[in-house]
Amino acid sequence: MKRVACLRRQLNIIMILTLVFFVTSCGANADVEQGASITDNVSMKAGTVQLFHATDSAVEPDSERYQLKQPDNLSASLDEVIDAMTLDEGITIEKYTIETSKTVTLYVRYADGVTEEKKLLSNAAIVKSLGGLEISTVQVTTLGEGDEEVDMATYTDSSFYYYEE
User: Read out DSSP for 30-91?
Assistant: First the structure.
């Protein structure tokens, strides 16, 4: 009789553990099933920003480089992300401003000989990197000689289509 009661208790414990495992595993997979990758989930939880760079024909993640976010300090986080980004030679971010609506204006200088394609790919890499800071809009103002504003373009992450191979 004692043996039957002991077996029932063990069976109840096993059923409870199975139920707990099932409930917690369903909750953990919900984020991944909604389109977020495991890397994105780890990155969001760890408070990091994935940095991107432009190649000759694409925008790719820097596989070994992430930048930590500074909690509650968008200006400092933005400054660190801009400093940590890998930009092509001939492309420099001179300064930036932040609006209250999470719009960032970047003042960028391009050296002679930088192609329009390289400019566009670099802008896409910048916008994709800054998206990790939850910045909604990036305005890129091109500076010419003497710091005059030559051109201005406004981008969001949906401004670019990234082809998957």
Answer: HHHHTT--HHHHHHHHHTEEEEEEE-SS-EEEEEEEEEEPPTT-HHHHHHHHHHHS---TTE
